[in-house]
Specification:
The protein is of the alpha/beta class. Helices cover 40% and strands 17% of the residues.
Length: 645
């Protein structure tokens, strides 16, 4: 038997921040020499004296650096950033040709990383991008998303980031919800004495929770504004009169101006301040963990600090859109000294519950398993999962004669669907798009899809007689509207006082338990934890995990999958019982791809929990192809027929 060759993985690190995320992966790769061959490339601000020559900590961690690239053009302005990208693109081809990696691991949203991804993509080298799909302020968003589009594989940190990547048409099978690698370090026990670390960097008299950590970077789309906020922050810290550890800003455009402000205010000589260019990550994170407060706009404040419940004051727009825990107080319009000072009064000395939004401490094992699963014989050209587009129109003789039709709308929890339905129940054309979260967006999408359908109806020679809305309650052939035209939100019947979060923003809705999207979410969770696939099951590489796989696993005896489906079936059954008690129908008809699976469990719940007057009601499945759309259309067509008779 021929053994699979080692995967040659090149990890490229550009600065002290990305190394804190990449180092755990590098240690993991190094610990498995039978599977991986690690190459380390160092570039960017790692090699600049003013920023601490942080490449030394990589060497101190006993990594062999394969290549050091001086890629930074000094100037700390917009032009210097562009020139730095250009310089990196000039130097990278020689290095990549020499190293010839199978996979290049790139992190985040820095301009250095954009150069790496561009060079690798053009040289047909597969790219694994860490922390794609996240949202923040400034030009970083655009750079991060550009790197994601160039990358072949993705290891993201949060469920929202995963959904953003899917919305960006990235292949779901090439997205790993791993968590943040730095959390593997944060959530592991440490042998170091944190008081020793505090005394080393702040002095022997300083105790935990009695100092501030400050770290503010430039906002490249508003350099002057960020310099102003930096000055106001320093003024507030001077007035607040607490020991403060302040780190120099990163190398982005505007950093020179911020350092100038720091020196004009005498921060480096001030008795309350310790100004540092670099602190090793393990010690820095200990200082953050035991600080009375962290202030600035570093991603560390909205990510890593939450793991310890450290209170954080986030200034300005640099982290706008980031998912944060309750420990973060945002001062987005930080335009006065008093506003920042008041935030310090509110936050300093507090402790918050620890947050694990960005990871559970098991990111590295997941990423290593993901890397092992990559098949190098697969086509290098990445494909995008675009939403369906309109079919090309082909005129047919049947369309010459005008057809009377209805426009049917199905407001599902997951998708919004519109169809042109003929008098004989034939679906002439169907449209489907993901359902937006907000009411205004849904209305706008309904109008847009209906306009598209009406235009197609003209080409199909169909005369639209009216519009029918699905997902409602019909009583005596009349649609029940409700006082605000919102009656019939059956998917949002609450079956639990708590429970999973629903797309409506509430918790405990039946849709959050039993919908196709809810089951797909649980299937993906089990698959990510290697708890879904059982003996006899097979999941193709290009196949996205879905509710079908969850049902298949349950049918083959997977206890975890069975538990998920039992909870979903119970939730749906309880919701149906509530409907029976309110409306007392003669029959329950389930439709959709999950109807056949839910039929028997829902019948059992009715028998067990419904009032005696409703226990005999039967549950059946619909044989119609599109029952919701046809039902909506029938309201229009039936009404029109009765009027014309």
């Amino acid at each position: 038997m021929v053994s699979k060759r080692k995967l040659r993985v090149c990890v490229a690190t550009c600065n002290r921040a990305d190394y804190s995320k990449l180092a755990p992966i590098m240690f993991g790769l190094k610990a498995h020499p039978e599977s991986f061959e690690l190459e380390v490339m160092v570039l960017g601000s790692h090699l600049i004296d003013d920023y601490g020559n942080t490449f030394r900590m990589i060497e101190q961690d006993d990594f062999d650096v394969s290549s050091k690239l001086h890629t930074i053009v000094r100037g700390e302005d917009e032009a210097a950033m562009v020139e730095s990208v250009g310089l990196a693109l000039v130097k990278l081809p020689d290095v990549l040709q020499r190293l010839r990696p199978d996979i290049l691991v790139v992190h985040g949203d820095r301009f250095d990383a954009l150069a790496l991804a561009t060079a690798a993509a053009l040289m047909n080298i597969r790219i694994l991008h860490l922390e794609g799909g996240e949202v923040s302020g400034t030009i970083d968003d655009s750079i991060r998303h550009a790197i994601s589009k160039l990358s072949h594989y993705h290891a993201c940190c949060t469920r929202s980031a995963e959904q953003h990547l899917i919305a960006m048409c990235e292949d779901h099978s090439r997205i790993l919800l791993a968590g943040c690698p730095s959390y593997d370090k944060l959530l592991s026990p440490t042998k170091n004495n944190h008081l020793d670390t505090i005394h080393t960097w702040l002095g022997d008299m300083v105790q935990e929770n009695q100092y501030i950590v400050a770290l503010q970077h430039p906002v490249t789309t508003d350099i002057q504004g960020s310099i102003k906020i930096y000055g106001l922050m320093l003024d507030a810290l001077i007035s607040f009169n607490k020991k403060t550890l302040i780190l120099f800003p990163n190398i982005d455009a505007g950093s020179k101006g911020m350092v100038r402000v720091m020196r004009m205010k005498g921060i480096e000589q001030h008795p309350n301040f310790r100004a540092m260019k670099h602190i090793p990550f393990e010690q820095f994170i200990q200082l953050v963990a035991h600080a009375g407060c962290m202030i600035g706009n570093s991603s560390c404040g909205v990510r890593e600090a939450g793991a310890y419940g450290t209170p954080v004051i986030n200034l300005g727009s640099r982290q706008t859109g980031r998912e944060t825990g309750e420990n973060v107080l945002h001062v987005r319009d930080a335009d006065t000294h008093n506003k920042i000072y008041h935030a310090l009064e509110l936050q300093f000395g507090k402790r918050y519950p620890c947050s694990k939004i960005y990871g559970d401490g098991n990111a590295v094992p997941r990423i290593l398993k993901f890397l092992r699963s990559i098949k190098l014989d697969e086509p290098l050209q990445k494909s995008f999962c675009f939403p369906p587009v309109k079919e090309a129109f082909s005129q047919d003789i049947d369309h010459i004669l005008e057809t009377q039709c209805a426009l049917a709308v199905d407001l599902g929890g997951t998708n919004l669907r519109v169809a042109i339905v003929s008098m004989r129940g034939k679906i002439m054309r169907k449209y489907c798009k993901p359902n937006p979260k907000t009411y205004e967006s849904r209305i706008q999408l309904i109008l847009s899809m209906s306009q598209d359908a009406i235009q197609d109806a003209v080409r199909l020679n169909c005369r639209i007689l009216g519009v029918g809305i699905g997902g409602g309650i019909v009583h005596h052939h009349e649609l029940v509207h409700g006082s605000t035209f919102c009656a019939g939100e059956l998917g949002h019947i609450m079956v639990s006082l708590d429970g999973p979060e629903c797309m409506c923003g509430s918790r405990g809705c039946v849709e959050a338990y039993a919908s196709g999207m809810a089951l797909q979410r649980e299937a993906k969770r089990l698959h990510d934890e290697d708890l879904l696939i059982t003996e006899g099951m097979e999941l193709k590489k290009v196949e996205a995990v879905s509710a079908v796989h969850l049902i298949s696993a349950a049918q083959q005896g997977n206890a975890k999958a069975q538990a998920v489906l039992k909870t979903a079936s119970t939730a749906l059954g309880v919701a149906v019982v509530n409907i029976l008690h309110m409306t007392n129908p003669s029959l329950v008809i389930l439709s959709g791809v999950l109807a056949s699976y839910y039929q028997s469990p829902v019948q059992d719940i009715i028998s067990q929990r419904a009032l005696a007057s409703s226990q005999g009601i039967k549950v059946v499945t619909s044989d119609l192809e599109e029952p919701a759309l046809l039902g909506a259309a029938s309201m229009v067509l039936d009404y029109t027929t009765r009027r014309s008779c």
